[in-house]
């Protein structure tokens, strides 16, 4: 199993004399005013889950948007705060953005243009000139923040995600000697889809300023290379692993992201998780033979409506399961300033109400919808309670809920129902795989999961756990860094 130590050594081999700087939009911790006091809250996000162990292992610097109400009160004049609060091991530099910047860069270009463009969930992307201007300006602001911390030292800047497609170009223009790499956490679409993007040349030019560019899957990397072939003056080499543009070579490789298997598995057995399980059991009245769970940001890519419809169809087809199971869907509100997200939230409410009205009995309501953001410990408790976990994304770069669920199931007593359209489905082939667009077959697979005998369930879960344990977050990060060492 890859460990923190392996990652530390991988970084030491190539970057001993470099500063490690991670850049992401979402910060790992936010400070908020609560009842006259300042509270520090760990952020719930895939990127944060993945990167926190990496920055901790290397005592690095993390640069991110400071969006907490009390953030400015907790850092020094340079925006720096030491984290985690209980035992500081790395520094976070907060970048301050105005409401207009957040609206144009985060809600607008990142999440109304790039997000739907890359996910292809049949939501039309919106390209607005003012959003693009804010996206450029915020990428420049982050470049200045990074450069001000690097000074004249050597640094390895590891950029995360689609919020920063232009940042590599701005950094390299100022300091060509910096090692700049980026991981794109969402899918990359085929060239036919990408060509509708208004600023495609600038985006591709930005991404091709990286020394290394990572995607979850070979399929996404191939889509990216095909897009470059069509849309920008560049040369892809014969083995299709590097692109050269203006004498700069970018290596393009797949690195399937993962979780800290060991920590999750250990923490899932902690007494505080057991006591949270008890409180959830009481709060959601979980005294049924089977507990199905779902845990997502409320996002149209996650296939939450499709999942609810499949549960409803399952009840119609198999009425003998009435009063024998309950489905607890936890959804955290997300990007609510975007119309489609607001509408989706309303649609979910309506659908849950309709399904419960249709199928409920005097002593049973099939679906419990909980609109709440669970913290790390609460999510572990939910995983423990669910003997079936449903992940039904319409399209997902990886999906870390699937891997967390597997890592938390120490007793092997769990079945994962997983969309074929997640990156995770390439690795977790022992899940019960579904096409979320096919309601009938999805409902049948719920039955397969419920009826699976204990031996089969445990065999499958054991194999998935081996897979996640072996391909953990430290392997992901170490492979990324080792790839850079070859260059
Ligand atoms: O899946 C890509 C990703 O960037 C995740 O890292 C993260 O959980 C989510 O999308 C973004 O969420 P938010 O917009 O709330 O930061």
Q: What would you call the shape? A: globular
Amino- and carboxy-terminal Cα gap = 26 Å
- CATH architecture assignment of the largest domain: 3-Layer(aba) Sandwich
User: Which strand-content bin applies to the residues?
Assistant: 15-25%
* Distinct bound molecules: 6-O-phosphono-beta-D-fructofuranose
* Arrangement of strands in the largest sheet: 5-6-4-1-7-8-9-12-11-10
Task: Give the class from helix and strand content and strand pairing.
Answer: alpha/beta
CATH 4th-level superfamily of the largest domain: Glycogen Phosphorylase B
Examine the coordinates and then state which fold CATH places here, giving the name of the CATH topology of the largest domain: Rossmann fold
Helix count, DSSP H or I runs of 4 or more residues: 17
* CATH C-level class of the largest domain: Alpha Beta
Counting structural domains, the number is 2
Could you characterize the architecture of this molecule?
Helix 3 packs across helix 4 (129-150). Strands 5-6-4-1-7-8-9-12-11-10 form a 10-stranded mixed β-sheet, with helices on both faces. It has 2 domains: 4-258 and 473-484, Glycogen Phosphorylase B (Rossmann fold), CATH 3.40.50; 261-470, 3-Layer(aba) Sandwich (Rossmann fold), CATH 3.40.50. The protein is of the alpha/beta class. It has helices at residues 4-15, 46-58, 99-119, 129-150, 167-174, 191-194, 200-207, 218-231, 261-268, 271-283, 304-317, 339-359, 376-385, 400-408, 439-451, 454-470, 473-485, and strands spanning 19-23, 29-34, 37-42, 61-65, 80-83, 90-95, 155-160, 179-183, 212-215, 235-236, 242-245, 248-254, 290-297, 325-332, 367-371, 388-391, 415-419, 432-434. The mean pLDDT is 96. Bound molecules: 6-O-phosphono-beta-D-fructofuranose (F6P). 6-O-phosphono-beta-D-fructofuranose binds at residues 26, 45-47, 161, 185-186, 334-335, 397.
